[in-house]
Description:
The chain is α/β, with parallel strands linked by helices.
Amino acid sequence: MSGHTCLVVMYHYVRDSAATAFPDIRALAPVLFDRQLDWLQGQYTVIDLRRFEAALDREESLPPNAVLLTFDDGLIDHYDTVLPLLRARGLRGTFFLSQDACGTSPRLLAVHKVQLLLARLGVEAFSRALLQACAAPGIPRAAGPEVFGVAPWEDDNDRAIKHFVSHQLPFTEAERVLEELFTRYIGDSAAFAGRLYLNPGMIQEMAAAGMTFGYHTRSHRMLARLSPGEQEDELRPGVAWIRALTGQATVPFCYPWGGPHTYTRETLRILRESGYSLAFNTVRRRVKPGRENRYELPRVDTRDLPPYTAAEPPPAETFSREDA
Ligand SMILES: [Zn+2]
């Protein structure tokens, strides 16, 4: 068996944000995606999920410089933009879906409500509206400098308010407040979800074109904040749902947010017992088949590679980059 490694690349939005109603959503422009595919195909061999899993199972060896392309969150960009670009090159990708977003009654995930509200209002107005709407005790503490920082509003403030909503605010309170703000500032969230995410028909069309799918929890909650029973609710139904939708024999998983602190030992157990074939986090290095825990496989972000950077990050740099 060869000792070849595999680079796994993670993508989210692939769209021309400037041409949309949310120009401030951070996305990979289609022209840059195309350029990155040129670069990848010049240096690497793009493999599909079947071959990646066969390498993990030590049934097949990898080609030198293998790369697997993965796309998170079930965004409609993956049907509108990614599918035609991959098909034109004869490539296959792996797409991770949350059932609440891509099922028969789509719901807008909290992670996307935050991104869209931030893009619509800016971080200062969003932070103030959010904190005003919060009823949970102890909230004013978060209105200190660690959230608001100093003007001008910068990335640190974006990160602070996202951290507050996703890591600190109780889920039910975060969901209540985000729904209230989304309705007030943007509109009907269910209608918006119907336009933001892949629907079952699109997923089946993509599967027929050779694309593969994995699960990304039911509701995109941070697993480390849930009890084992709540984690089971988020994880258990995914294998059967993806199989029924696509006819796939194996179903991979990727963690929402993705850093090693966003899941627990219990998560790994539940994934194994539920029958997932593997799981990706966001630790930033290559996969070394045969030397990995298959439920903690690393991935790099599109922004770690050209044309954003000069080259693939060196092996020594292994830190985690969150997915939102
Ligand atoms: Zn995600």
